[in-house]
Write a structure and sequence with these properties.
Organism: Brassica napus
Keywords: Repeat, WD repeat
Strand order of the largest sheet: 3-32-31-30
Pfam families: WD40
Largest sheet: 4 strands, antiparallel
Strand content: 25-35%
Oligomer: single chain
Protein name: U3 snoRNP-associated protein-like YAO
Distance between the termini: 117 Å
Number of helices: 8
Helix content: 10-25%
Length: 522
């Protein structure tokens, strides 16, 4: 179209041809409020943009009539797609508790436990044909659950030491599992039905307590270990070493942790006995391991003088704690996020993991070899001079000392409780036979034990401010590790011809393996 020359006197007359033009009608030109005209084609116009046109068309297609929806579902059922849809929704039904809070989960578990307890009481009442009131039954259930919870948490100490009867002449340690080399660590499952043991040659066994049937954990290839996180940083002479010095099992019985000379912590699946993860991080031999009760949190100690925390479920490193000035030899933990460790620097340290703080306890004049929790505020330790010590959290020196508890007599002759003499081939030039290399406590009770290489395992009762000796159980060899059954009905010990961390002594008459001793309770 043609436009006349613009008139400077009448601008409105200049716009009349444009307002009536077909370009403005089609949208290629716009008339603004200020009297100006905005030129633009279809490409530059937002009103006619094909992107917006497609969006509006798609939105219009979303709306369906009820009849159409019913017909689609009926067609899917006829073609068999409805069944696949139900199968896809099944995981949602299985994960119905995925969004519940921690409080709701505790409430659900408590209700399930209460239901199981009531059903068990109901079966017992039906068996003895007893008509008991429901109120009295509920009171008994509440008292039973409260007592169990207090015992598990350590608030109430079970009186087991006073019930232990004197062993008969027929009672004694019997080897149920044999190893080729010295056993360095043993552990029991939470139900006391299965046991685990490790020896210096890297052999890891899983065995049944009642029958003694054993199964071995096979080490995977180097490629598999590397894929599980292992880093080859060891010295050449220890590159392929599988020597194991520490072992621990989680309270739920799912994971087994081992550590040794290769500076790694190896995680195994107890159900399949397969290697699942390797944790690097320590710069020297891993000497001790323990799981926190009721969780999959793992604590480790090493000759690099550090204590580290790991989350086995998430396969992740949590934090580390420094403070020891020499090798860390033993570590233990209860339900709280705390761990105690002892080392050759003559100190025992309480590591408070969330606060990243430590409390230090100093031994009188000896190196500490072993330690364990009695309760959250009481600890037990063994020294290399044959002394067993009782510690309290609020005092930095031992509350009570049992001196020379595992001392050797002259000429390598030991005397048992009955006065009989046992000739044992001890290396008298070495004092390693009197090292208290292991201490153990029956969880939540007052029964404790200590072991060394002098031929005896000592049972003792833990009192308020003292340790009272009970009985001596004869056992030849170096007792490198011990564990009580949760019920207190038996004690297992890992025995070897050599000490745990070296060859400071040798008892050739000893048998390498796991020994068990029954405890008769009144």
């Amino acid at each position: 179209f043609c436009l006349a020359p613009p008139s400077p006197l009448n601008p409105e007359a200049n716009l009349k041809p444009l307002l009536s033009s077909p370009a403005l009608a089609e949208g290629r030109m716009k008339y603004t409020k200020g009297g100006s005209i905005k030129r633009g084609g279809k490409k530059g116009s937002n009103d006619r943009d094909p992107f917006f046109e497609q969006e509006t068309k798609k939105r219009r297609k979303v709306g369906y009539d009820d009849e159409d929806i019913e017909s689609i579902e009926s067609d899917a059922e006829e073609n068999g797609f409805a069944e696949d849809k139900r199968e896809a929704n099944e995981p949602e039904d299985e994960d119905e508790f995925a969004d519940e809070t921690a409080g709701e989960k505790r409430k659900r578990l408590a209700e399930a436990l209460l239901k199981r307890t009531r059903e068990a009481r109901q079966r017992e009442r039906e068996e003895r044909d007893d008509d008991e009131d429901d109120d009295e039954e509920d009171d008994d259930i509440v008292k039973t659950l409260m007592k169990k919870q207090q015992e598990d948490s350590g608030r109430v100490r079970r009186a087991i030491a006073s019930r232990v009867q004197e062993p008969l002449s027929s009672d004694g340690f019997s080897v149920i599992v044999k190893h080729r080399h010295s056993v360095v660590s043993v552990a029991l499952s939470d139900d006391d039905a299965r046991g685990f043991s490790a020896s210096k040659d890297g052999t890891i066994l899983h065995w049944d307590v009642s029958s003694g049937e054993k199964e071995i954990y096979k080490w995977p290839s180097d490629e598999t270990l590397k894929s599980h996180g292992m880093k080859v940083r060891e010295p050449r002479n220890k590159k392929h070493s599988r020597a194991t010095l520490a072992l621990a099992v989680s309270s739920d019985g799912r994971y087994l942790a081992t550590g040794g000379v290769d500076r790694h912590i190896h995680i195994w699946d107890v159900r399949t006995r397969e290697h699942v993860q390797a944790f690097p991080g320590h710069r020297n031999t891993v000497s001790c391991l323990c799981f926190r009760n009721g969780s999959t949190e793992l604590y480790s100690g090493s000759f690099d003088r550090s204590v580290k925390a790991w989350n086995v479920e998430d396969k992740a490193f949590v934090q580390d704690s420094f403070g020891h000035q020499d090798d860390v030899l033993a570590i233990d933990a209860l339900r709280k996020e705390r761990a105690i460790s002892v080392g050759r620097d003559r100190t025992m340290q309480l590591h408070k993991m969330p606060e990243q703080a430590r409390m230090m306890y100093r031994a009188p004049a000896s190196s500490l070899e072993s330690c364990c929790f009695i309760s959250d505020t009481e600890y037990l330790s063994g020294s290399d001079n044959g002394t067993v010590a009782l510690w309290g959290m609020l005092k930095k020196k031992p509350i009570f000392l049992l001196k020379n508890e595992h001392s050797l007599v002259a000429d390598g002759i030991t005397t048992n409780e009955n006065g009989d003499h046992n000739n044992v081939e001890y290396n008298n030039s070495c004092t390693a036979s009197s090292w208290v290399s292991s201490v153990a406590v029956c969880r939540g009770s007052d029964l404790a034990a200590s072991g060394a290489g002098n031929g005896f395992v000592h049972l003792m009762a833990v009192e308020a401010t003292a340790l009272r000796p009970l009985f001596k159980l004869s056992l030849s060899g170096y007792v490198n590790s011990m564990a009580f059954a949760k019920s207190g009905k038996f004690l297992i010990a890992g025995v070897g011809q050599e000490t745990r961390f070296g060859r400071w002594g040798c008892i050739k008459s000893a048998q390498n393996g796991v020994a068990i001793h029954p405890l008769r309770l009144s």
